[in-house]
Amino acid sequence: MTAGFVIAVDGPAASGKGTIAQRLGRELGLPVLDTGLLYRAVGVLTERAGVGLDDEGATAAVAARLDPAELEDPALRTRGAGELASRVAVHPAVRAALLDFQRAFAARPGGAVLDGRDIGTVICPDAPAKLYVTATPEVRAERRWKQLSGQGEAVAYDDVLADIRRRDARDGGRDAAPMTQAPDATLLDTTEMTIEQAADAARRIVEAARARWERSRG
Ligand code: C5P
User: Fold this and answer.
1) What tens digit of pLDDT does each residue of 159-181 get?
2) 5 C-alpha to center of ligand 1: Å?
């Protein structure tokens, strides 16, 4: 079976990658997997089970039992869930337990969009379209702060900025699949862009990648 057109969208928290992935999926009629939700679910379920987040074996067991229906839980969208996610995401065994689910999603015959930290580097290194979406920590913190405030979560901007910096350092500094731009990914810096501009730029990058991919298939 010929693999479909896979779009890998990586980047740090609140860079715009999630919105970009959703829009690309809608426009191209491709299913979208927000892989951050997998790690968020493992973090939240681990905490609920009263298991230590540093216990690699126990967190990996939670990951292995994960039911995709659990990804709908609104509790996964909170600020605390992002922090729990990044703490369990450092464990190689957790990442290994989530690998097959992500690869199976990417192998859908019609193609797929996946967003995360290691899609272009580890999960789908052969993806024909790869984007690395970023923005300054200050701008990302402002976006995240507005989003959390809109959800009714009262939080200070400085605390959100500190969260973002801590998460960037942990995600980029870990040994297992650290957050990094794949050598063949196109960098999209959204610092000075509205979400519309960022989505337009992403669409152009993906259209060019799609044309190359179709040519390469003859
Ligand atoms: O993207 P989101 O902010 O929801 O991701 C939450 C956390 O999950 C990240 O900070 C990161 O530690 C982890 N993650 C990861 N690999 C992915 C997606 C998310 O390590 N592919």
Assistant:
1) 999 999 999 999 999 999 999 99
2) 23
